[in-house]
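Database export, one record per block. Field names are fixed; values are copied verbatim from the stored entry.
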Amino acid sequence: SAKLGKHEEEDKLQLTQLAVSDVVLLNKVDLLRGTEERAKAAAYLQRLCPHAKVVPTHFGELPLPELLDVEAAALGAGMSHEDAPACWEVCPRMTSSTRQPPP
C-alpha cells in the first residue's frame, strides 16, 4: 500500500474524528456571507457526520449544555453552589436517542 502524505493523513484523521463525533462545532460563522453560506456549511458537515449535532458558533462560544448535554441542577432557596457538589445533571431530553439534528 502506498504511504499517505502528511496532508492526506491529516485529512483522514479529521474525517475519522467527524465520523464518530456526536457534536461538531461550526465556528467562525460570522465570517460566512449570509444565511445561505451558513446553511451550506452546516449541511456539508451534516453529510460528513449524519449522527452529529452541528452547532454554529462565533468565537467558539456556546452554552455548556449545548456541548455536554447537561442542564443546571435545581438549587433550593437560599442554597449556595458551594453546598451542592454537582451543579449539572444530564438532561433527559438531550440524550442521544432523542436528540434531533438541527433544522
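Remark 1: DSSP finds three helices and four strands in the chain.
Remark 2: The first helix runs from residue 6 to 19.
End of record.
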